[in-house]
Structures are given as C-alpha cells and as structure tokens.
Amino acid sequence: MTAPRFDTILITGAAGRLGTQLRRGLAPLARHLRLTDRVAIADLQPNESAHIAELADEAAMRALCEGVDAIVHFGGAPMERPWEEVLNSSIRGSYHIYEGARKAGVKRVVYASSVHAIGYHRLEDQIDAHSPHRPDGLYGLSKCFVEDLGRLYWDKFGIETVALRIFSSFPEPADRRMLWSWLSFEDCIRLVTAALTAPRVGFTVSFGMSDNSVKPVDNRLANHLGYHPQDSAEPFRAGVEARTPMPDPKAPAVQCLGGWFVDLGHPDDEAAK
Amino acid sequence: MTAPRFDTILITGAAGRLGTQLRRGLAPLARHLRLTDRVAIADLQPNESAHIAELADEAAMRALCEGVDAIVHFGGAPMERPWEEVLNSSIRGSYHIYEGARKAGVKRVVYASSVHAIGYHRLEDQIDAHSPHRPDGLYGLSKCFVEDLGRLYWDKFGIETVALRIFSSFPEPADRRMLWSWLSFEDCIRLVTAALTAPRVGFTVSFGMSDNSVKPVDNRLANHLGYHPQDSAEPFRAGVEARTPMPDPKAPAVQCLGGWFVDLGHPDDEAAK
Amino acid sequence: MTAPRFDTILITGAAGRLGTQLRRGLAPLARHLRLTDRVAIADLQPNESAHIAELADEAAMRALCEGVDAIVHFGGAPMERPWEEVLNSSIRGSYHIYEGARKAGVKRVVYASSVHAIGYHRLEDQIDAHSPHRPDGLYGLSKCFVEDLGRLYWDKFGIETVALRIFSSFPEPADRRMLWSWLSFEDCIRLVTAALTAPRVGFTVSFGMSDNSVKPVDNRLANHLGYHPQDSAEPFRAGVEARTPMPDPKAPAVQCLGGWFVDLGHPDDEAAK
Amino acid sequence: MTAPRFDTILITGAAGRLGTQLRRGLAPLARHLRLTDRVAIADLQPNESAHIAELADEAAMRALCEGVDAIVHFGGAPMERPWEEVLNSSIRGSYHIYEGARKAGVKRVVYASSVHAIGYHRLEDQIDAHSPHRPDGLYGLSKCFVEDLGRLYWDKFGIETVALRIFSSFPEPADRRMLWSWLSFEDCIRLVTAALTAPRVGFTVSFGMSDNSVKPVDNRLANHLGYHPQDSAEPFRAGVEARTPMPDPKAPAVQCLGGWFVDLGHPDDEAAK
Amino acid sequence: MTAPRFDTILITGAAGRLGTQLRRGLAPLARHLRLTDRVAIADLQPNESAHIAELADEAAMRALCEGVDAIVHFGGAPMERPWEEVLNSSIRGSYHIYEGARKAGVKRVVYASSVHAIGYHRLEDQIDAHSPHRPDGLYGLSKCFVEDLGRLYWDKFGIETVALRIFSSFPEPADRRMLWSWLSFEDCIRLVTAALTAPRVGFTVSFGMSDNSVKPVDNRLANHLGYHPQDSAEPFRAGVEARTPMPDPKAPAVQCLGGWFVDLGHPDDEAAK
Amino acid sequence: MTAPRFDTILITGAAGRLGTQLRRGLAPLARHLRLTDRVAIADLQPNESAHIAELADEAAMRALCEGVDAIVHFGGAPMERPWEEVLNSSIRGSYHIYEGARKAGVKRVVYASSVHAIGYHRLEDQIDAHSPHRPDGLYGLSKCFVEDLGRLYWDKFGIETVALRIFSSFPEPADRRMLWSWLSFEDCIRLVTAALTAPRVGFTVSFGMSDNSVKPVDNRLANHLGYHPQDSAEPFRAGVEARTPMPDPKAPAVQCLGGWFVDLGHPDDEAAK
C-alpha cells in the first residue's frame, strides 16, 4: 500500500492500550486520524487530531463522525464494570457512534468486540462466527449488543461493520490462557487493517488471535477479510509455563473461552462492597 | 393440571394486549398472579394484585420480584419507538427484572421476545433458533439484548429463560402477512404455559405462531417445551384476501420475516419530525 | 378461496397425465386456463383454451406466455428418452418458457421437476432441498437444468420459481416403491395450488409426495409453501404387497430415491438397438 | 397386513418386559416366532418355540439363528450391571448374535439400543441420530458397542440393522421424566414392526418414544421407517405430577437425556459393597 | 514425478487462453497430448497432435476420445454468449465429450467449470462445494449443467470427474476483484495436475484460485485433490489499486462472487441489438 | 519446553512399533516413563521402568496406573485379529486401563485409536471428528468401543481423553495409500505431545496424519490440541509410484479411508482355515 486509502479515520478509545497501537499502525492508511477518548491522548502526531469526550455525549459523538471515511470503534468500558458504566459508555455510547455514522454517511465501522461475547462456549466446541452469543458478563453482553447494532445498521442503513472478537491483546502473553488467546499488537493492527480494506464485508464477525499453536475457534467465516496473523505465543511458552501452575482442565476458567471472566461474580455486587 | 404449580407468578406488561390475555390464561397455573404495568390494570381479580410501576424503576422492579416463583416478562416498549424509550423501558427495564430475579432467587423467566429480533431473515431461509440475530429496528434490537441477557443469567447465575419470539398475536389475522405470522391468544397462552411448565429449558428460544398453513421458520429446537398450537389463520384467509391486494413477493416487507418493520425508517427521525 | 386469484394461468403438458388433473384442479384459481401440449387436448372446457405446439418452437412458446399471470410448466419428455428428445423438449423447451415469462413479465413459474433430479441419493440419507443434485438419467439431468434455469431467472430477472420434485404421481400406487413415493392426484393439485398461492417463494424446491407412512426425504425447507398432503398410500399397501415380492434392500433400485431409473442403461444405447 | 411377511423371527430376551410384549405384537408378522432367553418363557403359544440359553453361549446362539428371516435382539443386561455381566451378556452375546446372523444369512436385525447410549446429551440440545455417542454407564456403553457392531455388519457383510434407542418402555409413565421419555408397549410394537418391514434401512438409528408432548430429540433421520406413535404420556400427567415433586432443572438427572443413570456411580463399586 | 502417468490426454479448448497454458503445463504428465479446438492451434510440439473440430460435432468428439486416458475439458463458449451458442458448444458439446468418454472407456474427466456456476452467492457467505448452484448467466448455467452431467456419469457409468470452478485465470490480476479471484496460470496447471493425479475423486468440485489474501469461499471439500496454490495476487495489489477506484461494497458486482457478470443483461437481448 | 511437565507417564504397548518411538519422543515430557507390554522391552533407559503384563490382567493394569500423571495407551491388538484376541486385549484391556485411571486419579489418557474406526467413510466425504463411527473390522470396532469408553469416563468421572485416529504410522510410506495416510514417527510424537500438553481437551478426537499433500479428512475440530505436523509423504512419492501400479478409483480399498482393511473377510473365518 503506497497511498493512503482513506482521508480521515475516526478512532474511539484512542488513548487506550489498543487505541495507542492503532494510532501508529493505521497511520499509513489515512491522511488524517481523528482521535477521541475520555482522557487525554499523549504524543499527538501531525497527522492526528484529538478530542476528549464521553461516548455518552451524543452531540459530541455526532460531531466527531462528520466527514470521516471509516470508524474504528475501540472505545467503551474496557473490562467488566458496573451496569451503569457499561450501559452509558458501551451501549449508549456505541449507539451514538452508529447514529453518527448514519447521519454523516460513514460507510464502514470496525468494532472491537470481544471473546467475552461468546465466553461461555468451550474450547473443544470449536465454534465459528455463526454460533450463538454466550456472553460471560455485562462487558460481554454489551459487546453482543453492539454486534447486533452493527447487524441492524447494515441490514437497514447499509453501513458495513466488521466486529472483531478480540481475545487477549497485550504486549505479551501474561498467563497460560494467553498462550492460545493472545493477539499481538502487530497482529491487532493487521486485523484492523484487513477489516478496513477488505473489498466487501457486509456484516462480518472475525475472531482476533495471533497464529498461536492452540486454536480454540474456527475463523473460516471471516476469510474474506484477508487477515493473516504473523505472530505467535509460542516463543513465550517456556517462560509462562515456568512461572504459572498447570491448569485444571475441569475448571470453568480453563474450559471456557472467556477464561476467568466466567468466574467473576456480578459487577454490581462487587461495586456494592 | 389439577393443582396450581406455582404459588406466585409475576406478569409484567400486564395491562397490555397480551398481558391481559395471560392474566386469564395463566390463572390456573398459580395461586396468585402479581401484575405490573406502567398504566392501570382493569378488572382486578381475587387471585391478582396490581402494581403500577415503570420498568425503569429499579427499586420497584426488585421489590416486585421478591417471593415470586416465575416471571412472565411481557413489559417494555410494544413496538418501534425512539431510542430513549427503548433504552429505558426495554433494555434498562429488562435488566432490572433479571437483577430482581437474581436477587430474589426466581428460577425461571418467560420473555416476550419477537420476530423482530430476526426480522431481516427471509421466509425461504427457513431459519431455526440457532440462526444469528438480525433485528429489524430498535425494538428488535432490544429483544436481541434481552435474549442475550437471559443467556448470561442462565450460564452465570442459573436462572432459566424461555425467549418466545412472538410473531403477530392479535384477536385475528389483520393482513396477509398474519396468515402465516398469526399467534392466536389461546395459542399464546398455550405457549407461555408450556414455557413455564416444561421440565428443563436452560436457555431456550422458541418461535411463537399458531398452526398456520404457511410456516416460515423451523421451530424444532424448542420441541422440549411441549408447545402444540391448536389454532390456525386458515379460517380467516378468505376474508383477509378479499380485502387486501396480492403482495409483491419482491417487496422487502414480503420477503422478510419482520414484515413492514423492515420498511420503517429510524424512529428517532420520525420522532424528530 | 372464493374468487379466482389469477386471470390466466398457462399450463404446459396439459394433455399429459398430470396436466389433465391440473386442468380440473386449478380451475378455481383462475378465470382462464391457457393449455398447451404437443398433442390434442380433449374435453375442452369453457374456461380453457388449447394450443397445440412443440416446446421447441420458441415463437409459439413466447406467444403463449403473453398475458398470463403464472405458468405451470409440466411439459417436456415425461420419462427417460434419447438425448435429442430430452434436449429439444425439456432443455430447449424450458428455456423458451422462461424466456417467454421474462419477455411477458410473468411473475411466477411452477415447474414439474422430479425425484429423478436427485435419484442417486439413498432413502436413509434423508436429504433435504439443499442437498446436491444427483440425477439418475438424462430425464433427471434435464430437471436439474431447469431448476438451475429457474434459479437464474429469479436471481437475475426476479421471476419466482417453485420446483416441485414430484416422486410418483399416478392414480394409485402401482408397486412397492410407490408405497413411499406416491403423490395422489389430489395432493398434486394441492401442491401446485400451494406453490401458486404462497405469498413468497423466491426460488424454492419442494419434494412432492403424499402423506405416506415411510418418508424418505426431509421437506422442511419448503414449509413456507403451505402444502399439506391429505392422502396416503397406506390403504393400498395390502394389495400392493400381495401382488409383488419383497424387495432386496441392497438392490440399487431399492436403496436409491430414483428407484428403477438407476438400473436403466443409457437411453441412446436403447434407442440404437 | 393380511399375510405374515416372515416365516420365522428370532426374538432374544423374549422373557423380558418388552420381549413378552413383542411376542404378542409381532405374532401377525411371522408364521413362527423363535424365542430365547436365559430364563423360562411362560405361556408358550402354538406359533412359538422357546429356547433357554445364555447369549454368551456362542454355539447356542448360532444354532438359534439358523433358518430365521429376521432377528429382534432385545436380550442382554437390562440395566446398569457390573462389567463382567455387561461384557458377557451384551457385548459378547451380541457378537454371537451377529455372527449367527452372518453365518445363517439373516438379512435384518432390529436391536434394542437405548437412550443410555446418548444419555449425557441434554434435552435442549435436540440431538439427532448423527450426534456422537455419549453413554451414561456401562449399560449404555454396551449399547454403543452393538450399534457399531451393526454398522460394521452392514458395511462389510450386508446385514441391515435398525438400532432402536428405546427411552422408557413401561406399562405407564412412572415418574416425571417418563412424561417425555415414555414409550408405550403398543408403540414399542409399532416401532419394531416398522423396523422389520421398512423397505430399506441399511443401518438406521431411531429414537423410541411415544407421541409425548415434550419431545427432547429429533427423530427425522429415521423417517424412512414409517414409525408413527399413537400413544402419549399426557393422560398420565396429572397423576404423575400429583405424586412427585417438581424437578430441579439444574440437576444432572433432569438436564440429561439419560435421567438418573447419570447420577449412578460405577456399578463395579456398587457390586463391591 | 519422473515418468509420465498417462499415455494420452485429450485437451479440449486447446487453442484458448488456458488451453495454451495447459499444453505446456501438462506435458510432463503424458507421453502424448491430443489437442482439439474449433480454431487452429499454434506451435504444435512433437508430443502433440491437433484436431480442429466443433464440440457440437458428435462424431468428431467421439473419435477424439478413442484411446485417451483422461480428458481435460476446457472447451466451449468462454464467456457469456447468446443461448444458441451456449447450447451448442457447451451443453451439446459437453454431452458429446462425456458420451465419447463413456464409449471409449475413459476413466476421468477434468472439467473447467467456473465461478459463474455459483456467481450469485456472496463473499461473506463463505460457501463450500455443497452449496447450491446459483448461476449468474447462461454461461454459468451451462457450467451447472456440465457439473450435473459429470455427476450422472460418475453415479451411473463410473467415470470420475473433477469440476474446477475457475475464478479468474489471467496473466495477472486485471482489476480489484481479481485481487481475490485470480488464479495464476501456474496455479491453474497445479490444479489440473492435482485433479488428474489424485488417487480418488469420484465426483469432486473444487474452487480454483491462487493463494490470495482475501479468500471468499471454503475449498475444504476438495482437500483430497492435493492442490496447493503457490502464487498470490498480493504483489499486484498496489498497482491495481493505484489505477482503479475503490469499490462500492453494496454494488451487486462487488458483493457477489460472479462480479460484473451479475450486472449483465440477457445475452440474447444484447445480441439482438 | 525446558522442564518436564509430568512426573510419570505410563505407556502401554511400549514394545510396539509406535511405543518404541514414543519412549524416545516423550522422554523430555516426564521425569519417568513407566512402560508396559506383553513382551520384553529392549534397551531400557535410566528414565524408564518396564513391566511385562497382559492388558487382560486387571490387577496388573491397576497397579501400573498407580501414581502416574497421564497414560499413553497404545497397547492392544495392533491389527485385525480374531474376536477373542480383540475382546481380551483391546476391549477388556482398555477397560482395565480406564478403571486403573479412575481408581488412581489419573487425569488424562491419550489413546491410539485408528482410521479403522471410521474406515468405511470415503475420501471425498471429507468427514470430521463428529461424523459417525464406521469401523472396517473387529480391530476398528474395538477402537470405537474405547473411544466411547473414554467419552463415558470424561462425562461421568472427569478423566480427559484424546483419541488419536492414527492413519498409517511407519518409517516411510510403503504404498500409494500411505501417500495420503502416512504419519511420520516424528509427527506421531508431536501429536501425542500435543495431546498430553494441551490445556483442555475434555474428550477430543483427532485424526493423525502428517502434512501430506492429499488430505482426506477435516481435522479442524481438534485445533485446540495444537498439533502441527512437519513431515510429508511427498518426498517419497516418486519412489512409491515407480514401484506400484496406478490404483483403481472404484476399488473399495481406494475409495474408503480404511484402505485394504475393507477388503478383509472376517478374521474368525481366516483363523478357522
């Protein structure tokens, strides 16, 4: 790719762990990156503009969508949080993004869904993108909601969505589960790039993992994206195994795709403590 | 069934079109029916208690769930409505119901989902309960959300849910589409009764139609409910056809399960007019 | 159904075994039946007009399609025949019919396909309408061709087709195979009526059998037609079994849906004898 | 059916609960019933001959298979038993039957498999005959073995088998599970009759239940047998429910097809007590 | 492969774009290549013989099939053409080839089917070889016909066929669609070689594409061919994208596998202009 | 992997062709290998202990299971053998192993199942691990039995099993079938290692082949094992093809996965000669 394909891409959650990587990784794709987050965004580059705003702020979100060619929607609560926060940032916030896209004529949204939208399925079930939702918490529930929102906006309003069910995107695998769930930052960039540039996506769901040895899901239904991971958790295996005990295959957190999320209690109970 | 199976059943949306029928139809199943709606409930019977409350009122909903054996959740926005109303009544309200059920130890919820959760699928696709969500509006989107909510509360908290994707439940078929989508009031009662009394449901999705001649979906995945419709739209066919024109098979509202919902614009645009 | 739904229906093969039945059976559906066959049509009724013509006569077929609302295409070689005859009557002839429909704006075609389009599948495979073609002779091959032709004319030109894979439609079951393959004349009429009047068919394939006890295929993918057979081969069982030997379950003609067609040699070899 | 279809049918387990019913029910199908069991068979009829023998007695079994047209193999351990008994009666014994069939040229075997061959599947999974084996004990394990044995003898030696996965065949439903698992004696006879007389079965697996309201499995893959149950557990529902408590939907014995078999410990442990 | 596997291979369409490549690529597989086309074949090599003939010439085709070990059937109308031409060259012509193969005892045919046999399926549907035919024109319709013809000749006459649904085989990718549909000439040779030499094919359908990044179909059902593409359209991406505009994902020609063929009108209309 | 993951692994059949390879290959995984076979085990290493015993010796097997972390069960009749031998070594013997595992609290068993458990499926059917059993002899039948035994011990007793359906594991491909069925010894070691170390297997079935060009089955349902073959039969192709004739694609031994096993008669007949 020599010339940028897009004039302006909007990135939500741009100050987050993945948002920060995407700023670097997506820069070649667009002349301009419009960034937004609820907190300040560091190290702004010449090709970037930054806008601090809450996703729950409908007017702000609509304004941010004006004039963009594509939206990379990685904002919202980044983990299991109390209901009110999930509701406002992820559910209402994502609605504001899609409404912004609709009103501004944006053609494609790439959304950071999550393994936690299907966290109660088991590894040996080898699910694919047509398997039913099985969220493992309020966080995952909000991811299901936004996937359905994307489906609606494609069927009714012709806005394409790629929902990326990201497994575990961290600098390196931090525990034994990440030996199969890890998505390297570079592969995350490859995945978002593929989702932005594939010729036709309609509404497509793709799992997001690196080329790890153990593969717990079947991603063939997203082969039209052209995503080809190039990293693997294998180089980290010895280290991870040396510092963590062998897992119990019967523990819910080992049998389920969602890992320890399935062991979490209700976040409102936690918040009430 | 000679003796009531339940002590108390909570019915939400009890003043609505279907809620009113369920009061009559479910009476033999429980010693007591606890009714709630946002508006007054007429003709209260000795076996009933009525509670006017908004679903969005969390404390009220929690109180209503105390001491009930099962919840028949038919409340929420009854059709396509602006986002804020859908969000508050259907999304937030249903969350309050499930939280109420969880805190009060209620074991089963029967939920009025809708054909509009899968409205963009076509008749000739003959989908079943495992086919992906394809909502046809904000109303359907909220139905998808509550189905996923029920799935979560089963997987994580052990509360069973039957999500009934009701097609068109009216006194009689009002148009040509209802010749295949109609659910008679008596069959609706049979369906809710089956969902309440089946020995094991886990999380089950069932389509809700009478035994009409044209069958546009495959309901075999709900055969463990023991629902057997006994009514049919056929006796109404001649009348309906006499007063309505032949449909155009290529019109979206004819090809899609959701009918004319797929032709609706965005409800917020409508509301803004 | 009190009033005719159609003004004019064109029936091809109208002098044939089934065409003769359809004249009687479809009469209530249309004000006028336009009949065509390569041979004379007996006992013309006031609501009928007859036109002797070869399907291979393109100009004649186009003229016959003018001004009709639906086509019931039952013409063409009625059994295994030499290639040139199959090619001219069934392949070229059916092309003429679809071209006639396209030029005249006819909206729906009901086509007499056959079990012989899938004759090499076995009973215990319980195939459905999505299973691949497996023709058992040139006759079946031409049926596959016309099914694909109908699929093309739906996808490209918006003409709906119901392809009826008729098993064995005779006055009564004549052999042991027909105890499961029989389609009574009355059920054949019900099936064509359903195919003509279903609200939406797109391109639909339906198997055509009566409500026989042994059911060798799964017809659920055509449930939107609203076809409900009311006859059965069972009353004929004792008679058939008394006069025919028990079949060998390992004989190809017993194991395959196509029956004795799978034992036939090549018709051109037969013709050359 | 006026004349018997078979000269001689061999029934194993003929003194058992179901064997006794089959003697009566299958009498019209054959001129002669050859009966065998390990215990004495009461009330021998003129059309019957009785042979006391162990299934583990290879020579006896081979002799019994000589000159029979079909075998109805209902013998073997009738419930969870210690390994040695299961091994000898069900595994070795069934091998003797199939070897007897092979050497004597018997063309079809109808085998009493069991729900316990797939007992760990859940009701809401709505499995069909292609779903993998999931035995719930040694009894079920032996049923899986004999199904595979039948598959082998069909593929390799051309002997047809219908494996009937009988759920609960008793005089009447004895507990709440039997409200969905019950197979009446008359329906059991209908099922075996269908399996014996269907024109082509190859190797077919059929679930065996009456026409109960709650249907926990999908039997469509056996539709070529022509089995149509005519009884139902519904008339017994009120009585059963009155004398048994409501089940806990989360109990393994309620969620699994195998019922209380899944709660059993290892039979060898029990035997050692 | 050191020694030729075949004595003589017949190649139809040998003067065409792909036929020319196959002459070179298949030379190591056979001692002799018998070539045929309707036009003159240039640069004849010592291992080749050339025969100018129309596929519609039955006698010529039969003579050409005498004494060959395998047929690589790439002849027939190479694109959308008027009906009479498609009928004569592709439908009648292919029938002549299969009849020739049958009479001469040829054991395997490798047929150049096309993406246009399934052109109306969409990229995101990720179809496989069992998905139904959806031709996108008369050209694709004739490909469907020949696939069914091959299926018949396998089931009935034991002649194996591999139908290769070639996507876009050109010297290099010429437009954006070819970035996913391209089949390099070398990969085309690999594919035909695999189809000729696989130990067992029965009737197998394989998609024909290079190892491009975006993969719009699932070819796993042809894994027994042993085809492993080694080329990719990626090196051509920058050039293609620089000289062609971004596609509209909602345009039929972008959403459908068949590309711009789905936008074509009826070829007879075109011819009539 | 730097440190051994296991203290002690039990290997049955340790003197056999594959057992010998596994002793070498699994050495890095465990501090100690406990070996057993019915015959003497050569070249014992310091990390090994050897125990000569019959699998049919229940007490011996139970003792051997004491104190081991995992069992690699490769013992039992290694090919088609008379019934009594299959029964005693493979069926009874494997039962003893699983009972030993249960009593000793062993957590995982890796079992050498075989292609012969599914030998009657055809290459072009591209079966996966959920396809039904189709054993091709008594040997394969015993493999089916032990798979079901493993399934039971997982569902009921929580012992994980990986059943490896090994195709042809020999020093090098010996015939044309092995060009697709070959599993190199090194890949066999990789496969067993993956099965022992995968984080979660429950009950998993995996096919066992090297990365050969022709792939006759679909192994995607075992992707959570992390098995990645690194060898291929291709380097042996020229040699094998030079010394063996071309196969007949219609021969049962060519069309079926089980190869020449499907041509074998009954082993008891052979033994009786």
From TrEMBL, chains A, B, C, D, E, F:
Similarity annotation: Belongs to the NAD(P)-dependent epimerase/dehydratase family.
Protein name as it appears in the record: NAD-dependent epimerase/dehydratase family protein
Keywords of the record, alphabetical order, are:
NAD, Oxidoreductase
Q: Does the keyword Oxidoreductase apply?
A: yes
The NAD-dependent epimerase/dehydratase domain is annotated at 9-169
Q: Name one Pfam family in it.
A: Epimerase
Q: Which InterPro entries does the UniProt record give?
A: Epimerase_deHydtase, NAD(P)-bd_dom_sf
Gene3D superfamilies (UniProt xref): NAD(P)-binding Rossmann-like Domain (3.40.50.720)
Asked if the keyword Oxidoreductase belongs to this entry, the reply reads: yes
Q: Which SUPFAM superfamilies does this one have?
A: NAD(P)-binding Rossmann-fold domains (SSF51735)
